[in-house]
């Protein structure tokens, strides 16, 4: 099956935009009338629902930030009554106080439907066994994928995260054809399988991985695809939007953002103005159809680019490319913006070092000092000190080319850097202001 | 002369330059019942290479690799030194004259006198030269 919902997914762009405008207008009227927060915010911003006369008028509306959700902890933001709620999820709170997300029955259906379209676009469907190795619980990943996978008629193996050896045994015994997890967990799983003497490429039926919840790179995709014998697809979403919602289609070139669910803008994080088409900026999303926790121009803090050209897969919805970094993950080293994803990208081209890394930032006198710790790959260890020094120089050189700022490299023993089963924390910032 | 029997298998282990790494390596070898006959540590900025002659190199490599260490085998030669002044000069000059480069070297003092361990760029040629000169090379079977 090509599309889960062809009428919507392949709708001509002009019609799609008309639909978005109608949904936006309805949303704005609804929130102005029923949400004290949005009412006050719009008044303060001197904008009235009547000012929204076309789709591009969305930029007249005020932004919303994660801080707004935190300030209204736990549920002052909700626009559905307590009786209408069927579920809560609570964000991991890695960047601050946790946020609570509530769902009505329709919200769960919308989320599930979004993932049904997405998983279908990644080539999955009835007959597939999808191992959901995202955490089940307060985190949206596990339950979100679970519902989406069941919706398309696939068989779900709800392993959640952890207990990796058992997961690999089950993957073999039950013939999982797909897995959904974080990219770092799949890497970990590959390493554990190797130690068990199991080749994921040869000894399992795994052919698809749906990977997300943390940034990863194109190089990492190439490496995992050839190592594990799979196709790896990026999945995107945040708990504030519902959870994971959008994946890449089989073209593997950005995830389709369903226009009837979300209106996306890419803006300059400094000025708040839209960037030119195709340029890098902060992803800003208006969720058009949610009942319990609607979002207008929500600034997720993810840096990416968007492509509105039609996709060869036949879907007309815009594609947002791989997340390049977080506005708040951005490190400023001697005045230069550095994203951990750039370091990852630079390292992937050096076979002499492993896939894991750690960035340690410190201050030496008045200067920022950046150190990247990487594992020396077993195959490239020679007894000669000069060979090892050469590998280190090569990595330092490459980092300099990618980052435009000097980073010292420390080679460490394989397996010595911390592995994370959830979102990885790759930066240690020891600078005190 | 059968040069092969004088090629000694040394194990080299990559180690981060921080406290406890040598202890970890030595403990692992002790646990496996591997005896260390000679060893040296080469130290660079932030890391080091531990080199050792052991009685069971394959067992040592397997154990250290399973613990996550980077381990490599390197061919070295072992020369018994005369216990008198000028002994080292003779060997070093011999190799230098033959244009064989000594990459590194270390020594240990055994029951039967001092032994010089040499890592050179042309192992077989070095063995021939030293053998022809009449210095005593130690056969690999003495170690393992």
What would your notes on this structure say?
The complex is a heterodimer of chains A (433) and B (144). With 433 residues, chain A is of the alpha/beta class. Chain A folds into 2 domains: 1-327, Rossmann fold (3-Layer(aba) Sandwich); 331-429, GMP Synthetase, Chain A, domain 3. Helix content of chain A is 32%, strand content 24%. Chain A has helices at 6-9, 13-34, 36-44, 66-71, 105-121, 140-151, 164-173, 183-196, 200-203, 218-228, 340-348, 385-403; strands spanning 85-90, 100-104, 129-132, 155-157, 178-181, 208-211, 231-238, 243-247, 255-256, 262-267, 281-287, 295-304, 306-307, 319-320, 325-326, 331-333, 336-338, 353-364, 367-376, 408-412, 427-429. Chain B is globular, with a radius of gyration of 16 Å. Chain B is 33% helix and 38% strand. Chain B has 2 domains: 6-74, VC0802-like; 78-143, ACT domain (Alpha-Beta Plaits), CATH 3.30.70. Chain B has helices at residues 21-31, 57-66, 87-97, 123-133, 140-143, and strands at residues 8-16, 36-43, 47-54, 71-80, 102-110, 113-120, 136-137. With 144 residues, chain B is α+β, with helices and mostly antiparallel strands. Chain B has 5 helices and 7 strands; from the N terminus they run βαββαβαββαβα. The mean pLDDT of chain B is 90. In chain B, β5 (102-110) and β6 (113-120) form a beta hairpin. At the A-B interface, α12 and β20 of A face β1, β3 and β4 of B.
